[in-house]
Design a protein that fits this description.
Layout (H helix, E strand, L loop, with lengths): L5 H68 L6 H8 L3 E7 L5 E6 L15 H7 L4 E3 L3 E3 L4 E10 L3 E7 L2 H7 L11 E4 L5 E3 L5 H4 L8 H7 L8 E4 L6 E9 L4 E8 H6 L2 H44 L13 H36 L4 E6 L2 E5 L1 H6 L22 H7 L7 E6 L5 E13 L2 E10 L1 H49 L5 H29 L6 E4 H11 L1 H6 L2 E7 L4 E4 L1 H19 L8 E11 L2 E8 L29 H12 L3 E11 L2 E13 L3
Parallel strand pairs: 18-20
Antiparallel strand pairs: 1-2, 1-6, 3-5, 4-5, 5-6, 7-8, 7-11, 9-10, 10-11, 12-13, 12-16, 14-15, 15-16, 17-19, 20-21, 21-23, 22-23
Helix pairs in contact: 1-4, 1-8, 12-13, 14-16, 16-17
């Protein structure tokens, strides 16, 4: 990590803090001023909008009241329409249409040449009423009556007549002219339901041209995004300048009343105040930095002194005198520093004693100990030097830890290098290139701020050699039993061969031997010899040693075992019962599992032979899958069970309850070794009941649990 100066860091922090405070205060002031200005503008616009909204509604109500007056009095006097037009400056013309949409009566202040009988049946204001509406406010349109943009209010009259009032916005426009911005522009815009401008004193041409602003920023950025009476920002229609405004909707006619103000002019009034705030902030910042530098200079002088003292103490000069400080806080620090000097000196002596004791302890253990970091050996004890056949520890220090590991164990050691492990087998290399089998484990240790890996190694070569001898002894014992089984298996086919040959010889002597008899006898002899050959192959496969793991079907293994022992079981009236699941393949050592199951079967056979002949002698074997990756093999006999006092010892080497000429006591021990050590499984012995032909039978039960992938 890149080192930095403490003094520079403190000074930077102090200056940054002053700058942060100054800029924050300045920003908050500007932001507060900005928000205050916007808030004032928002309140002003909302008030104007409320007043205009009320005036528009008042304007519309007056038109509707004139329509009601006309509806009530027209039948008494058709000239009522004249007084309505002449007395109301907001009405330019009134038409009365018959049920066909033709002018029945009218009055207008314009000089347009219109006449009774003129057809207005295609006009919107007639269609809406004729289709059942009681009244209808039209959007702005070009009127042939007024020869100008106009708005109409039509309503149902008696005898299916339709009254049409042509509305002028003169009084409404005069009212809106009261509201101006600081740049003398008008604040109010009035739009119909389709977005057409019907009032804009700043640009009357928009009204005459029926300018539609539905797709402009007014709708996109203001009306579609904001609710009524909520101020928003949008681009102006003409100059494309930014405006601030809000709107409301006149529900009766779906008109939009828009109040607006130029954003740049609105904000421009605070620019001078913002400039003054910035100048004041800069002056305050410069003064603060100057004061910070003056304070830091006095403070850092004392820190430089302490830095020099620390450097000398770290070099071993514990007698250095620390100068007194004029600052009260530093005085306490000085006293603590002097106390630290004395404590460091004491602890250094204590650490040296502890280190010597630790080295003595490490060198007095039975295990070889290797300490390494990131795969590189940092230290070893004397036991490791002796075990690996080196002359001195310096030859081992600095080498890669994997340098001492045999190629067969490189992969598993690399996998376990960065984690703590339980004991597991590792093959190591000595200096002379020879190897040895060991039990090793690794644990992490935090020392002097470093994360170190401590690996302990115990040579188990002698133990492994004894295990091989025991395994061979078990194999030889099984071989003796297999030879007996061969004798049983061969007795019947040899007898058949002998009988066939003798029969042919006798028939030959008496001259009665026919070709059919010869062919029949030879077929019998060939069948028997084929059976003998198959038996030889089965026993040869059993005595093969497993070199590598293979994938095999557990049910075929158990069937082969039953086949090998079939004659022996038949002679002793032992019945074997099977229950299998389908497709039970595992990865392991097929012949070793065969030997393990044979050992369990032979153990069960010996126990069953002690039963009277009238008792059922049963062995039940079940092979089933309990999980997607686990298989269970159970072997259950009816021999009465294993005595409780010897149950804990049945898997111990050389433990037997038979006479010396009957057993070696290593069969179940080797079975345990094969299942647990070689095939990484589990084996458990217990006594339990099972049912066969509605009868309960009690005996020993061996349960083997194997993983499919191990």
């Amino acid at each position: 990590m890149r080192k930095i100066s403490l003094k520079q860091n403190i000074l930077n922090i102090f200056i940054l803090f002053v700058m942060f405070v100054t800029l924050t205060v300045g920003f908050l002031s500007v932001y507060s001023l900005y928000q205050s200005k916007l808030s004032t503008a928002e309140r002003s616009q909302r008030q104007v909008l409320i007043q205009v909204e009320q005036e528009v509604e008042k304007f519309l109500n007056e038109i509707e009241q004139n329509a009601t007056y006309m509806l009530t009095n027209y039948q008494r006097s058709s000239m009522i329409i004249k007084s309505i037009v002449e007395l109301n400056p907001n009405i330019s013309s009134v038409l009365v249409l018959d049920k066909k949409g033709q002018i029945e009566n009218f009055y207008t202040t314009s000089d347009v040449n219109i006449y009774k009988g003129f057809d207005y049946s295609l006009k919107r204001y007639f269609i809406e009423i004729s289709q059942g509406e009681q009244s209808y406010w039209s959007d702005t349109f070009f009127s042939l009556v007024d020869e100008d943009q106009s708005i109409t209010y039509s309503f149902q009259m008696p005898l299916d007549k339709v009254g049409v009032i042509f509305v002028k916005l003169n009084s409404l426009a005069s009212f809106c002219e009261r509201y101006k911005n600081s740049d003398d522009s008008y604040m109010i815009r009035l739009l119909d339901s389709k977005g057409v401008v019907i009032l804009n004193q700043d640009n009357p041409e928009m009204v005459h041209q029926q300018f539609n602003i539905l797709n402009t920023s007014v709708f996109k950025d203001l009306m579609y995004k904001n609710a009524p009476y909520v101020m928003g920002k949008y681009k102006g229609i003409n100059q494309n300048r930014k405006n601030m405004g809000m709107y409301t909707t006149i529900e009766k006619v779906d008109w939009k009343v828009l109040v607006r103000e130029d954003y740049d002019i609105l904000i421009g009034s605070i620019n001078e105040i913002v400039l003054n705030i910035i100048i004041i902030a800069l002056i305050f910042l410069l003064v603060s930095v100057y004061i910070a530098l003056k304070i830091a200079k006095r403070l850092f002088k004392q820190i430089d002194q302490y830095t020099d003292n620390i450097a000398q103490i770290s070099a071993g000069n514990y007698a250095i005198k620390i100068q007194d400080s004029p600052y009260k806080e530093f005085e306490t620090f000085t006293q603590s520093f002097e106390l630290m000097q004395r404590e460091i000196e004491k602890r250094e002596e204590s650490l040296e004693e502890s280190l010597n004791s630790f080295k003595s302890l490490v060198n007095s253990t039975m295990e070889a100990i290797l300490i390494h970091k990131d795969g590189v050996c940092l230290d070893v004890n004397d036991v490791a030097v002796k075990l690996f056949k080196y002359d001195k520890k310096e030859e081992m220090v600095g080498k890669e830890f994997l340098h001492f590991v045999a190629p067969s164990s490189q992969k598993i050691v690399q996998y376990n290098m960065e984690k703590e492990t339980e004991p597991y087998e590792i093959e190591f290399l000595k200096k002379d290139g020879s190897s040895f089998i060991s039990i090793g484990q690794g644990k992490f240790l935090h020392l002097f701020g470093l994360k170190l890996k401590v690996s302990t190694v115990i040579d188990i070569s002698e133990i492994k050699h004894k295990d091989k001898l025991l395994f061979q002894q078990s194999k030889m014992a099984s071989m003796g039993e297999m030879i007996g089984n061969i004798a049983h298996q061969w007795r019947q086919p040899l007898s058949a061969i002998s009988s066939a040959a003798s029969g042919m010889k006798v028939q030959k002597e008496f001259g009665v031997l026919t070709d059919d008899e010869v062919e029949s006898s030879l077929n019998s002899i060939m069948k028997s010899t084929h059976y003998l050959s198959k038996t030889i192959d089965d026993f040869r496969n059993f005595f093969k040693s497993d070199k590598a793991k293979t994938t095999f079907d557990v049910t075929k293994v158990t069937d082969n075992v039953i086949s090998l022992l079939a004659s022996s079981f038949k002679n002793y009236d032992i019945k074997v019962l099977k229950e299998y699941d389908e497709s039970l393949e595992i990865l392991g050592y097929e012949n070793e599992l065969t030997q393990a199951i044979i050992n369990i079967f032979n153990n069960a056979k010996d126990a069953l032979l002690e039963l009277p002949r009238d008792k059922k002698r049963l062995i039940m074997i079940k092979v089933r899958r309990i999980k997607t990756d686990q298989i269970i093999i159970t072997v259950h006999d009816s021999a009465g069970g294993i005595p409780k006092n010897i149950m804990p010892s049945i898997f111990d080497p050389y433990f037997t309850t038979k006479y010396k000429q009957q057993g070696t006591g290593i069969g179940l021990y080797m079975t345990h070794q094969i299942i647990v050590s070689h095939m990484k499984g589990k084996i458990v012995a217990e006594n339990s009941m099972f049912t066969y032909e509605n009868e309960q039978h009690y005996g020993a039960k061996f349960t083997i649990e194997l993983s499919v992938k191990k």
